[in-house]
Amino acid sequence: MKKLSMSEYAHHLVPEKADINFIFKEDFDNDGELEAVIGYNNWDECMFGNFYILLISQHQDAFEHQWVLTPENKIYESYLHSFPKTAYAVDTTGDGLPELVLGLGLPGTAYNMSPLVIQWHKGLPRPIWKTSETFIEGKLHVVDDNNDGVYDIVIEKAIFDYTDIVSAGGTLPSVQQSTLYKWNEGTYTPNVYSVLAPKDRAFNTAVFFLSAIYKEDYKTAHQLVLLPTFMKLDGLDEFNIDAFSSYVRSNIRPTLAKDIEKAAIMPRYTHSTFCEFEGTNYIYIVSLTHGPGGVKVSSLKIK
Q: Which domains does the chain have, with CATH numbers?
C-alpha cells in the first residue's frame, strides 16, 4: 500500500473548498520532528465560516493529527467564527520553541481584533494568552528589536480622543495607539511602543499637532514641529516657544479655530509625508518629516 505524503494526508482532512489562512511547519513540541499547523475557515458550514486549526505530526512513518480548534472545542468557543488577520510561528517566551501567535478578526466586527497565543506543553497545544479586551481596528505584529531571536507582540488599536477636532471612524483613518507585550514571568506585560507604519505615525503627529494648536497647547505643538523650518523666514531670528506661539496665534489658529468651531475637520488624504484635512471653509495640508527625533511637522499650508 502506498504511503501518503503529508500533503495527501492533509487533503483527506481539510475540505476541498476551505479557505486556507496559514500553514506553518515547525518543531513546535521539541520532539525533533516538524509538525504542520494549518488554519482554515469552512464557509460551507455557516455564513460566518467556522474557524479550524489542524495539527499534523509525524511519528516514524505514520502521520497523526489532532484538531486544536473546532466548533466542539469549548476552550476556544469565542473564536469559533473568527478569521486570522495575522498569524506567526515565532518564539515569544525565550524557550527556543515557536508559539502560534494569532491576531483574530471577530464576526460582525471585521475591523476589530482579539489576540490568541498557543504554546505546546508536553507535546500538547494549549492557549497561554488571550485578552478580555477587543482591540478596535486592531492590528497584531511581532518584532525582535534586539535581534536575539525572541519576539515581542505589538498590538495597535484605534483611539477616539480627538474626534472633536478631526473626524474618525468608519472608512476614515483613526489615531493609532501601539503597545508592546513582552513575556515576563508567565504572561505578556504591556509597554508603550511606537506605532510601526510610517503612514500611521505621520497621521498621529498631524492630528496631535492640529489638536494642540486648537487647544492652545503651544508647548506640545512646539515639540511636534521641525524648527526653524516650520516658521519659514520668521524663524531665522527666534524659534523658541514664545516666538513660535506668537507665530501660530497670528498665522494659523484663528483660521483653524473658526473651522473647527463649526464642525470637526475631515481627513482627505494620508501619506507618510503629508496629510490633508478638509474643514468647512479651508483645506489644511500638513507636511511631515521622519528623522532621529521622530515625526515632525515641517509645514502647514492653508488653502
A: 6-195 (no CATH), 200-302 (3.10.450)
